[in-house]
From TrEMBL:
The keyword Oxidoreductase applies. Residues 586-777 form the Transketolase-like pyrimidine-binding domain. Gene3D superfamilies: 3.40.50.12470, 3.40.50.970, Multifunctional 2-oxoglutarate metabolism enzyme, C-terminal domain, TPP helical domain. GO terms for biological process: glycolytic process; tricarboxylic acid cycle. The keyword Oxidoreductase applies. E1 component of the 2-oxoglutarate dehydrogenase (OGDH) complex which catalyzes the decarboxylation of 2-oxoglutarate, the first step in the conversion of 2-oxoglutarate to succinyl-CoA and CO(2). This is 2-oxoglutarate dehydrogenase E1 component. SUPFAM superfamilies: Thiamin diphosphate-binding fold (THDP-binding) (SSF52518). It comes from the Bacteria. Transmembrane segments: none annotated. Residues 1-34 are annotated as: Disordered. Its EC number is 1.2.4.2. The lineage of its organism: Bacteria, Pseudomonadati, Pseudomonadota, Alphaproteobacteria, Sphingomonadales.
Amino acid sequence: MGNESHDFSPGDPSTEPQKGPSWDNPRWPLVGGESADEFTQALDPTTMKLAVKEAAKTSGKVMDAAAIEEAAGDSIRAMLMIRLYRVRGHLAADLDPLGLSHRDVPEDLTLEWHGFAGQEDKEVYVGGVFGYEWVKAGELFNVLRRTYCGHVGLEYMHISDTEERRFLQDKFESPEDTIQFTPEGKKAILAAVIRGEQYEAFLGKKYVGTKRFGLDGGESMIPALEAVIKHGGQSGVREIIYGMAHRGRLNVLANVMAKPYKVIFHEFSGGSANPEDVGGSGDVKYHLGTSTDREFDGVEVHMSLVPNPSHLEAVNPVVLGKTRAQQAIRDDLSQHEQVLPVLIHGDAAFAGQGVVWECLGLSGVRGYDTGGCIHFIINNQIGFTTSPKFARSSPYPSDVAKGVQAPILHVNGDDPEAVTFACKLAVEYRQKFGRDIVIDMWCYRRFGHNEGDEPKFTQPLMYGEIGKHPKVSKVYQDRLIEEGTIEDGYAEGLVKEFTDLLEEEFQAAKSYEPNDVDWFAGRWSGLHKPVEGEAARRNVETAIDKKLFDSLGRTLTTVPDDHEIHKTLGRVLKAKSEMFESGDGFDWATAEALAFGSLVTEGYGVRLSGQDSGRGTFSQRHAVWIDQKSEDKYIPLSTLPHGKFEVYDSTLSEYGVLGYEYGFAMADPKTLVLWEAQFGDFANGAQIMIDQFIASGEAKWLRANGLVMLLPHGYEGQGPEHSSARLERFLQLCANDNIQVCNITTPANYFHVLRRQMLRSFRKPMVIMTPKSLLRHPMAKSSADEFQGDHHFMRIKSDTKDIADDKVKRLVLCSGKVAYDLIEKRDEMGIEDISIVRIEQLYPFPGEPLTTRIKRMKNLEEIVWCQEEPENNGAWQFVDRLIEKAATDAGKNLRPIYAGREPAASPATGLAKRHQAQQESLVSVALDLSNSGKTANVTTSRPKKSNKG
């Protein structure tokens, strides 16, 4: 909501020093709507008498004391009527094109209720409202009805900000700001509506029965969206980022985004949207996006429609994140004027999908604010087959937006001028106040949920009325003919001209072949698809030199003289300083800070967000130092030159925030974007983003992304929800080199993998199972030299003990924290023929180096895979055959043995003693300490041994 304050990140022009308690926000009003003083003063009898007396004197009216008394009473009743229309007039607005939504006019919106029945000609004093000092009661009533109960119903009195409320009030109540268009403007609106209608009709005729999720019945949206481009451009907008679901998407692609008709027809005929050699799975045509430039009145506006899956509203946070990134790139974070997000929703989805609120909730939060979003609801007054009374509890689908005090414009979709006016007003409001605004366009869906559906199965009365209802263009052209704007036959000429064009494009589509793809354009220039072959991809230097290492050390351990930190943080920084002095004992948090700081120094951006990311869930990060007296914030990494470091504590949202960060990373490959879950399993709440965008977005839409997910994972007896990040789910999604999945055990390796993410010439999403107990584990330490020289990310980490290859009889492979449990137990037992090797990157699986490692072990008899997770979870079912293949390639005919917990419905026990017993047992099985083949509640899968190899 407007410019940000309380922002952690210097470099953002909207940053202001923290004033007052940390929980305070100056944008939060104590009450909503009109203030008590504001209204009661207007209705105070004494004040009103004085106002009437002065107004009578000014206008030359002669009034005695009794007349003034009566006039003051009349004025109070008139002012109450005005206020009630401002608050409740939308309830009597003419919104439903079908006339099926029957609404009784609320009693308090009648002349009778206000005591003016039979007194329509009585003059009342209203003090300048609607430009009147004195006005007849009946005329005032008619003006209120026209203003607030016409084809646009305005909800705005829930807004606490007086300036915002008055702005909207003036736009509605001033004659020069009402719905007015020039004859040429009206013709342009009609032409846009006709293009929308005829495009759908053409598709229906040429591709009978093919799903297109047509806009039929909501075509007024087409001129309205063009108004957003035109008026946005006039008010400083240079880029618009759209997100929408299926309904009307193809129409928007063609008639708003200017995607060539022949390309869409080519796709309808089964052709690909991209050249055949590009690869990828592709997607259905009503999921695809595009980008283009359009010019109105000499102002060029770049537009992009973000591709989306079938999951309703899932694209919303992606659009907002991409908007924020583009605003940062354009240096527009202080004003939010140049980049505008526009989200187009269905009525049932806006009311029913929780991510809608998650995104609304981000609208005024530091680090996530985009300066307001225009929400356009295509209100078909029906879901798939579900009527509104079963789809929501509130009167309007838009009611959830009141939670962020967004104004709402309800508008009749059969009136294209009204819808266009609403969009124009929405742009003006957003550009002026930097806040969300909602347009709720009441229309209808002429056909079923898709063009092969029979809607009369469930809504026979509605669809009986739709069958008789004239099209939007017919309603509008009759109105224009009646008012003399166009002549009879004018619209028919537009129809013929446009359908002739469509026919030409249809014929051209038969020979059309895509020859270009905008995969790595703009800010993505210089990046490309990965080079084939593991060796080629490993060739990236991630170490830093000693000078930078030492400089970062000083930055991370120096406290400003005027900053009083917490005493415990003081001890942490003292220990950190000793690390840099000794060159030993570097922990996870320090390695991470070194990675972030080095990237920033090299000119990259780093954006870290999530729940409690500033401090870190486990008090390990301390990226933000809080002054214990003033609560001023100091962020060491933000003081570094060249790049920009940002860390944000997000709202308690997974779905929305993860989608937001994905969208940010989509727009800016030069910023390392990380989303951190408080615990790894919290990612469950964002599964749609993981499945539909992160894992498959590149294959479906040719959109690369370098987002990093940090998911705390590891079995420490903290129960089912705080042990497992559901590693198995990510591995199940792995294919076609789509993502990277890592479970890292050393701080230095974590440092290198973060730097590798930015220093390579391609981007892939990366999922990291981050540790909890390893954050401070005495064995999970790195030395200074591991960050320097020729060190790099190791996909496989060797044993901590130097065991000669020819002595190894049992190889235990594992990933993550369990490695240290195994190492400690083996060394305690004095075992000399078991090697413990860690797989740090599970996907892409390091088969080549693992094969090399196994080949060196000439006397190897057994390979074990050990994991903490139950057998049906974790990595076992993913790595099983991959390990066997590596062994086969090494000349060993060995199947891996499984050592870990038994299959379980719950990912972990919540009982400390049981957890400890299970952990000791799986370690014993992995090291073959019992020789029993199986221990309590732990499984070992022991395949038949072969004589070969």
